Task: inverse folding
């Protein structure tokens, strides 16, 4: 399964506790496989509640060479691959030694997709990256804020609030009322527009 959204690249795999909407991200520093350990407490909970664990491998978003800083998004805003594995049922985990349970989950995640040593970033999106950098440079937004703003600009069938946010940036001013939704939208716009970006004007209450 391939997802083309621009999700954060801080993890390579996740274990979902199906039916409880619980998601466990397994952190990996660079390409160090040893840095990825399943949370023993979560596995105990899955056994106790009889919840299967679905291994998911997220790949294609990290650089080839390890990096020291945290990456908020896939390298060069490329797409990431999401691969879903066969569920691991609690009965299987319960039958394993305590220390083997985490290794079983980790092996299931790493078994999805290419070996870690062969993994490389997917095709980048230079046009999108250029638009993000432009929004960082001109209004002074951070990388996270600029990326989210550019993503919001591309949302199809946007709702009225999002349309106002985008149009406000285009006209260099966002004029809002004093109701709670407008105040919330103004706070969001103030972050996404950046310190030197379009103005946000909220009318005073009578």
Result:
């Amino acid at each position: 399964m391939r997802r083309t959204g621009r999700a954060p690249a801080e993890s390579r795999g996740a274990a979902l506790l199906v039916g409880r909407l619980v998601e466990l991200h397994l952190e990996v520093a660079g390409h160090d496989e040893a840095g990825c350990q399943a949370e023993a407490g979560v596995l105990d909970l899955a056994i106790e509640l009889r919840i299967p664990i679905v291994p998911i491998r997220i790949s294609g978003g990290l650089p080839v060479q390890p990096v020291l800083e945290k990456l908020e998004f896939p390298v060069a805003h490329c797409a990431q691959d999401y691969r879903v594995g066969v569920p691991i049922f609690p009965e299987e985990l319960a039958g394993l030694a305590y220390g083997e349970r985490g290794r079983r989950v980790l092996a299931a995640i790493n078994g999805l997709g290419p070996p870690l040593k062969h993994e490389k970033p997917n095709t980048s999106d230079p046009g999108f990256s250029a638009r993000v950098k432009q929004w960082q440079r001109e209004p002074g937004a951070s990388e996270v804020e600029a990326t989210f703003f550019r993503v919001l600009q591309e949302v199809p069938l946007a709702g009225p609030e999002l349309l106002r946010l985008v149009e406000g940036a285009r006209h260099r001013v966002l004029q809002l009322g004093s109701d709670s939704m407008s105040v919330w939208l103004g706070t969001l716009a103030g972050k996404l527009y950046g310190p030197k970006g379009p103005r946000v004007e909220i009318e005073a209450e009578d």
About this structure: Residues 1-18, 28-37 have pLDDT under 50 and may be disordered. Helices lie at 40-49, 90-94, 98-110, 126-137, 143-153, 160-171, 180-193. The first helix runs from residue 40 to 49.
